[in-house]
Amino acid sequence: MALKMPAPDAAVLARREEIIAALRRLVPGEAVISEPAALRPYECDGLTAYRQPPMVVVLAESTEQVSAVLRWCHGQGVKVVPRGSGTSLSGGALPLADAVLLGLARLNRILEINYDDRLAVVQPGVTNLAITQAVEARGYYYAPDPSSQIICSIGGNVAENSGGVHCLKYGLTTNNVLGVELVLMDGQIVRLGGRQLDPAGLDLLGIVVGSEGLLGVVTEVIVRILPKPETARAALIGFPSLETAGQCVADVIAAGIIPAGMEMMDQKAVHAAEAFVHVGYPLQVAALLIVEVDGPEAECSELIEKIASIASTNGAVTLRVAADEAERQAFWAGRKAAFPAVSRLSPDYYCMDGTIPRRRLPDVLRRIEQLAIHHGLGVANVFHAGDGNLHPLILYDANQPGQLERAEAFGSDILRVCVEVGGVLTGEHGVGVEKRDLMPEMFSEIDLAQQQRLKCAFDPELLLNPGKVFPVLRRCAELARMHIHQGEVRFPDVPRF
Ligand SMILES: Cc1cc2nc3c(=O)[nH]c(=O)nc-3n(C[C@H](O)[C@H](O)[C@H](O)COP(=O)(O)OP(=O)(O)OC[C@H]3O[C@@H](n4cnc5c(N)ncnc54)[C@H](O)[C@@H]3O)c2cc1C
Q1: Would you say 60 and 69 are in contact if contact means Cβ atoms under 8 Å apart?
Q2: What are the φ and ψ backbone dihedral angles of 373, each rounded to 5 degrees?
Q3: What is the mean pLDDT of the chain?
Q4: Using a 6 Å cutoff on CB, does residue 104 contact ligand 1?
Q5: How deeply is 4 buried, as exposed, middle or buried, from its count of CB atoms within 10 A (0-12, 13-18, 19+)?
Q6: How far apart are alpha carbons 380 and 28 in whole angstroms?
Q7: Half-sphere exposure of 476 toward its Cβ, with a 13 Å CA cutoff?
Q8: Ligand 1 pocket check: which of 106, 162, 468 to mutate, most ligand atoms within 8 Å of Cβ?
Q9: Do 167 and 194 contact (CB within 8 A), yes or no?
């Protein structure tokens, strides 16, 4: 592993058997996994280039068990890495050699569905799609729809603030979660948020959503459920260049239209998706947009017409509006299968995730092409165009010496370009270990220290998911230290108690 992780604590490793025995007393049955072969499935998440078997896995089945495990580990100075379904693409659930991997997948019950209040209360191991499946018969759904939705857990979605194609209009996880139950590293169980938007007090829920398992373990989530729109219409629009497609995206938004989804694929991704799902994508175009609008029928028809006119002004060469629901689903099937489809182009691919201002799309795509030549690797581009969220898929072969390193260097260069044009290092996949060392490209020392102080407020011993997100994990005492120079008190105007 090229990536530097915190050195395993030899004293903790020496106590492995004792730790396993104690965990078995807290979580009886077969929930504690310690055999080396049985630990293998947990050695990585979706960022498969990095692997590390955990010291031990505990599969908790209740909030009380999560609390007991965390309290015991806190008392013993043992680190804990939370894990949902293990689909993180940034290595957020990568285990540590001296840490307990705390699996939440068995906490998989839907506890309450309340149509009057339009919410569902679910345990963290419930998959994203299972929420929609539980309410769709009554005409409702859960809006954020990551492509991994059949498997990723809602707890993981909260930790990563996950998004999906419909987040352009309906917001990310953070806009669709009303409250959580959170277990702190010392075992305390707290509730943040509530059963309606914007409850009183500091917005601690806003801090926890997207905190990548660094602040606490989510054991219950209250999500908003929305009535399904009356109609959804999708259009497939082909362009002769990425620039014209990018301009069309910018013009649609500038016209005051917020589509339910607006996704773009470049020619390589279009060809791969078409060969995979055979849905009739036009193969001659350089860029393909899928634009979906939803709402009342009359509104959808009007918006589709407006979008078609904007596309034509931007030189669109093909335009197909889905005639029925089956065709609309087919348009999306290609996009949703784009990742596995691209995996047939080369033995391995590396999915990057950065966000840029929409108007910089053509410029950034040109830079990515130049970087591909510089690094000698292919790239296919799939992105949430409406959000400016890029997913370049870098093609490489891990069995060829040096190619993984080149793919990583290429990925880092793409993220540097994102930051340079006023964007950010992440879109929806989190920082994890993947982007950890690039954080200083975007944040100053002061920014990072402030962010870490927040971590210290929740987990002062830095036992929860260490080695992720922060490039340098300073001891909390170090961050709190106030330097006194020659008896002079810093910030004398600040009241002291
Ligand atoms: C093919 C594919 C497509 C994808 N498409 C998308 C996409 O469209 N949009 C998107 O946003 N992401 C996407 N992802 C990334 C991934 O699915 C999401 O980040 C997802 O939210 C991770 O959920 P998980 O349950 O797998 O979490 P894990 O991978 O198990 O964990 C992710 C992080 O959350 C923490 N965590 C997990 N559960 C908890 C909990 N209960 N409490 C506290 N911390 C916790 C972990 O410590 C880790 O830091 C995709 C991944 C794949 C493999």
Answers
A1: yes
A2: -65, -45
A3: 94
A4: yes
A5: exposed
A6: 47
A7: 13
A8: 162
A9: no
**From 69-78, 303-312, 450-459, 473-482, the region with the lowest mean pLDDT:** 473-482
Closest atom of ligand 1 to CA, residue 216: 43
How far, in Å, is the centroid of ligand 1 from the Cα of 91? Answer: 9
Q: What is the pLDDT of residue 483?
A: 58
Report the residue count for the chain. Answer: 497
Using pLDDT thresholds of 50, 70 and 90, give the confidence band for residue 197.
confident
**Structure-block tokens of residue 159:** 């930790």
User: How much distance in Å is there from the Cα of 256 to the middle of ligand 1?
Assistant: 32
DSSP result, 50-96: -----SEEEE--SHHHHHHHHHHHHHHT-EEEEESSS--SS-TT---
Residue whose Cα lies nearest atom 33 of ligand 1: it is: 92
Asked whether 111 and 125 are in contact (CB, 8 A), the reply is no
Distances in Å between the Cα of 472 and the Cα atoms of 4, 205, 475 are 11, 25, 10
E-state strands within 271-345: 287-295, 318-321
Q: Do 255 and 325 touch, CB atoms closer than 8 A?
A: no
**DSSP code string of 152-184:** -BHHHHHHHT---TTHHHH--GGGTEEEEEEE-
CA dist 359 and 356 (Å) reads 8
CA dist 309 to 215, 247, 302, 319, Å?
Answer: 48, 13, 11, 10
CA dist., res. 465 & res. 100, Å (int): 10
pLDDT digit string, tens, across residues 147-191: 899 999 999 999 999 999 889 999 999 999 999 999 999 999 999
Amino acid at 411: G
pLDDT digits (tens, 9 = 90+) for 457-481: 999 999 999 999 999 878 888 777 6
* DSSP per position, 305-319: HHHHHHHHHTT-SEE
Q: Which DSSP symbol is given to 21? A: H
Degrees, nearest 5: CA angle 492-494-495: 110
Return all residues near 454 (Cβ < 8 A) that are at least 6 apart. 207, 215
Pocket residue to mutate for ligand 1, from 88, 147, 391, most atoms within 8 A of Cβ: 88
Question: Is residue 162 within 6 Å of ligand 1 at its C-beta?
Answer: yes
Exposure on the CB side of residue 420, measured as CA atoms within 13 A: 10
Q: Is 149 in the pocket of ligand 1 (CB under 6 A)?
A: no
